[in-house]
Specification:
With about 550 residues, the protein is of the alpha+beta class. It is built from 8 helices and 27 strands. The chain has a 27-stranded antiparallel beta sheet that branches.
């Protein structure tokens, strides 16, 4: 009797198990859709941006989700027998009949894609998207159209704390005879990262965010076969991102070369490198920006740039550097642009520079007040997005309020900056066979001023705290070469040089024209000498 009862319990348990797993997955789907709708309501202004229809069964269920005009059908197989786990969900888009017929012909009646979501035990979810290889085919009902499709594979494993994903697409070619050709070859990516969303779909940023991934594309080409016959080619692009042991993050992107050709010109490059490192790449998403670490360093270089336009040819290498330094209470920012191996081949033009560089720095910005300004811009952007589909007075008033708050915070930022000791520099220089030229400007508030928070008073009082300097240097052969390029007559050139000395106070120092202007302690100094009439003289000379 006990054996019969035990057997009956087991049979009932086996029979009931799919119903139980079905209820579990139904509750999860309904809960996630409700959460998504709550998150999307401020943007869509609808209670149900995603509409869900659910038909529960014993061993399987069906569901339909509708987002605007996009409809997705789901076939849900309950676990744990038909599929090991809680459930397996097969999703299909409802397509217009014409599109469905085209895909049916291209894929010879086979499924053009499969989207499977497998809800496992132990709080993990597997997501896969696959599409079969069909080779090269003519596009149905498009006599001049063709497609090459070698399939697609995407998979993701989502656990409680991490996400692993991989993607591959060997080849896609689209073309229309006499119109265009587009191809992309061998896309691959894989990576592991901490989850950014918790179970309630809230952004969850751990203090230390772990990420490691890579991606690559062998080749991208685009040909416009009409008229100008423009062609774009990008070869061997690859990128990597990783978190390091010292709590920093690094990323890089490399491209072997880019080529652009058209009927009136061409552009080509050699190796392109983009590199970045930061203490917290997600700092702008933090709830409290003032406590986040903003420090980062980004560099870029492009080698062997060649530009051909009509009768002009330009060759150079390009480099760029951007740096943010977080000093906890202040922020420093700098950018540097540079070009080397410059060779401009222009009719009736003499190459004046082999290298050129321009950079600027802003130091000592108050982090607390700057944080509120950045947060204000982010908030205004979100409010603007919300108002796109909402013309109500409430949405308009929300935008006005965000603008007023941003203006107020911007004023507080300006006041805090004037109360502190910020500095600003601009540097530019060129070097070449004809000599060098440089321009250096520096300005700083040398002492803090906490005596007032009135912005007009701070501006008036800033004069006694201000220190500025301007240094200009130009080689005389460079002036001569530039004048020749402009077609300046010899007499006019001599008069121009004399005006530099007489009117602008340049000094000819062994063929190098230099000028130094300083403002400190409320007084101007020109080439090291006190000049009480500086403003009056320069105003008269520039009339």
């Amino acid at each position: 009797m006990k054996k019969i009862i035990a057997t009956a319990v087991i049979v009932v348990a086996i029979g009931v198990a799919p119903y139980i797993t079905g209820k579990i997955v139904q509750q999860r789907i309904e809960h996630k859709v409700a959460l998504l709708n709550a998150k999307l309501e401020p943007f869509s202004h609808q209670k149900e941006t995603i509409k869900l229809e659910y038909n529960a069964g014993w061993f399987s269920s069906s569901a339909k989700t509708t987002i605007g005009k996009v409809v997705i059908d789901h076939t849900i197989t309950h676990g744990p027998y038909c599929t090991f786990g809680i459930a397996s969900i097969n999703s299909k888009f409802e397509l217009p009949k014409k599109a469905d017929d085209v895909l049916n012909k291209l894929f010879d009646g086979k499924d053009p894609y499969t989207i499977i979501t497998k809800v496992n035990f132990l709080n993990t979810t597997e997501f896969t998207v696959t599409s079969p290889n069909i080779g090269q085919k003519a596009i149905p009902d498009e006599p001049n159209g063709s497609i090459t499709w070698e399939g697609l594979n995407y998979s993701a494993l989502i656990s409680k704390n991490t996400v692993y994903s991989s993607f591959s697409m060997p080849k896609l070619v689209l073309g229309e005879k006499g119109v265009f050709d587009f191809s992309i070859e061998n896309i691959k990516s894989q990576g592991t990262a901490d989850r950014l969303l918790d179970k309630d779909l809230n952004i969850n940023l751990p203090e230390k965010f772990n990420i490691n991934g890579s991606a690559s594309i062998d080749k991208i080409t685009l040909k416009d076969l009409k008229g100008g016959a423009t062609e774009l080619e990008i070869n061997k692009a690859s990128s990597q991102v990783a978190s390091t042991k010292d709590n920093s993050y690094t990323s890089d992107l490399t491209i072997d070369n880019i080529k652009v050709t058209a009927d009136k010109g061409s552009l080509s490059t050699g190796k392109i490198n983009l590199n970045a490192s930061s203490k917290d790449p997600l700092w702008v998403l933090r709830d409290n920006l003032v406590d986040a670490n903003w420090s980062s360093l980004s560099t870029a270089s492009i080698n062997n740039i060649v530009v051909n336009v009509m009768q002009t040819k330009a060759l150079l290498d390009f480099n760029y550097k951007q740096q943010i330094t977080d000093n906890k209470t202040t922020i420093d920012y700098s950018e540097l642009y540079g070009a080397t191996n410059i060779n401009l081949q222009i009719p009736n033009y003499e190459n004046l520079a082999n290298t050129a560089e321009f950079g600027y720095t802003i130091n000592g910005l108050p982090k607390k007040e700057l944080s509120t300004v950045v947060e204000g811009y982010i908030n205004q952007f979100i409010v603007a997005l919300n108002s796109i589909n909402d013309s109500s007075n409430e949405a308009f008033n929300a935008y006005i309020q965000s603008s007023k708050a941003l203006q107020k915070n911007s004023k507080l930022f300006a006041i805090a900056t004037l109360q502190g000791t910020p500095s600003f520099t601009v540097d530019a220089k060129t070097t070449g066979d004809k000599g060098n030229a440089s321009f250096d400007f520096k300005a700083a508030l040398t002492k803090p001023d906490n005596s007032t928070s009135n912005i007009q008073a701070l501006i008036m009082q800033a004069q006694s705290r201000t220190s500025t300097s301007l240094s200009v240097s130009i080689a005389e052969p460079l002036i001569d070469a530039a004048a020749k390029t402009k077609g300046m007559l010899d007499d006019d050139l001599l008069q121009f040089k004399q005006n530099l000395i007489d009117r602008l106070h340049f000094i000819n120092n062994n063929g190098n024209y230099t000028l130094n202007i300083e403002f400190k302690d409320g007084m101007f100094y020109v080439n090291g000498q006190l000049d009480p009439d500086f403003l009056q003289n320069y105003s008269r000379n520039f009339r």
